[in-house]
Amino acid sequence: RPLRHWIRFRAPPAPLIVSCLSLSLSLSPECGGELTATYGSINSPGYPGNYPPNRDCYWTVSVSPGLLITFAFGTLSLEHHANCSFDYLEVRDGSSETDPLIGKYCGTSAPPPITSSSNKLWIKFKSDSSVTRGGFRAIYKVGKLPLRCGPLLAR
Ligand SMILES: [Ca+2]
User: Span of the secretion signal (predicted)?
Assistant: First the structure.
């Protein structure tokens, strides 16, 4: 008898159904990924349509050692906020969210092209629960290290 009470409280049917529905909706369209080609592009989920709310997308660009990555926006249109606290694109100089922040972007003011200091970039797109815009599209390409780093060019 105590067991029946426990089950009734721990598994209420209605909230379970709701959470399954919202989970499947929140995963489409897909976003994020691991990029290893010498050039490529990334865009917000659903681009050029509005991105969906409540998304967290992660991309890593990882190319051969000795190459640097230049990352440039084609378009940027995210919900505006003074500190980009709602929807934003975050770019870090490395392979994880603990690497140095290059920039956090929102609104429509796309920055000039970014160049990494190594062969890896980490990118995150986040949207909050309300107000969506057209999103972003960005391209990247790789280039060799500056000539002063000559020995590394020998790879
Ligand atoms: Ca938003």
Answer: 1-33
d(Cα 42, Cα 101) in Å, to the nearest integer?
A: 19
Q: Record the pTM.
A: 0.76
The answer to whether 68 and 119 have CB atoms below 8 angstroms apart is: yes
Domains of the chain listed by start with CATH number: 31-145 (2.60.120.290)
How far away, in angstroms, is 153 Cα from ligand 1 center? 43
Average pLDDT over residues 61-90: 96
State the distance from the centre of ligand 1 to the C-alpha of 75, rounded, in angstroms. Answer: 17
- Ligand 1 centre from 128 Cα, in Å? 4
The count of C-alpha atoms lying within 13 angstroms of the C-alpha of 111, restricted to the half-sphere facing its C-beta, is: 13
Q: How far is the CA of 13 from the centre of ligand 1 (A)?
A: 30
Tell me if residue 6 falls in helix, strand or coil. Answer: helix
